[in-house]
Amino acid sequence: MNTKSANSSPANDSSRCQHRFANGQRCRLLASGSETHYCHRHAKLPENQREPADLAATLTTGLGEFTSAAPINDFLSRLLLLLAQNRISPRRAAVLAYITNQLLRTLSAMEQEAAANDRKNTPVKVIWDLPCPPHEQGDQPSCP
User: Fold this and answer.
1) Going by C-beta distance under 8 Å and a sequence separation of 6 or more, which residues neighbour residue 133?
2) How far apart are the first and last CA of the chain?
3) Residues 55, 95 within the same domain
4) How many C-beta atoms surround the C-beta of residue 82 within 10 A?
5) Domain membership flag for residue 68
6) Which of 1, 89, 113, 143 has the fewest beta carbons closer than 10 A?
7) What pLDDT does 141 receive?
8) Is the confidence at residue 140, as pLDDT, over 70?
9) Do 56 and 66 belong to one domain?
10) Do residue 79 and residue 36 come from a single domain?
11) In terms of domains, do 73 and 26 share one?
């Protein structure tokens, strides 16, 4: 006879706490509410708490576009402060730092493309190098 335990049913599995331990196993307690996916113990942990929505405004206010290294540096500085204040999870900070690293790498590629386009659009400089007229022996050539 094949019996299923209550813990293995899909409906019950979705109501369990979503916290995972270091060994990869999930917590067996029930989630404390519909808006949180964690039990009362794990909902208090900083890595399981939702981050406030105002972090986007804190990180990007006044930066505009990331088309130079200065706004990227400013963004990373703000990210470091939020991480030091424990207002953002280390995982989210790592993802944002990785994205800004990719932006920083593309800046040099964009500059190289712009320089190549500038070289293509500049007029060609023509240098005429005509030979000097022949001269008689003893006379100085007429051209330098």
Assistant:
1) 141, 142, 143
2) 109
3) yes
4) 19
5) yes
6) 1
7) 58
8) no
9) yes
10) no
11) no
Supply the range of the domain harboring residue 19: 12-50
The mean pLDDT of 9-38, rounded to a whole number, is 78
How many separate domains does the chain show? 2
111 & 56 share domain: yes
Q: Are residues 40 and 56 in the same domain?
A: no
Residue 52 has a pLDDT of 58
Cα–chain-centroid distance for residue 10?
36
Query: Tokens in use for 58?
Result: 């804190």
Mean pLDDT in residue range 52-75: 81
pLDDT at residue number 139:
60
Residues 58 and 104 in one domain: yes
- By 3-state DSSP, what share of the chain in percent is helix, strand and coil, each rounded to 5? 45, 5, 50
- Residue 4, pLDDT > 60, answer no
Concatenated DSSP letters of 52-71: PTTHHHHHHTTT----SHHH
Q: For residue range 64-111, what is the model confidence (pLDDT) as tens digits?
A: 888 888 888 899 999 999 888 888 888 889 999 999 999 888 888 888
According to DSSP, the residues that pair with 30 across neighbouring strands are 16
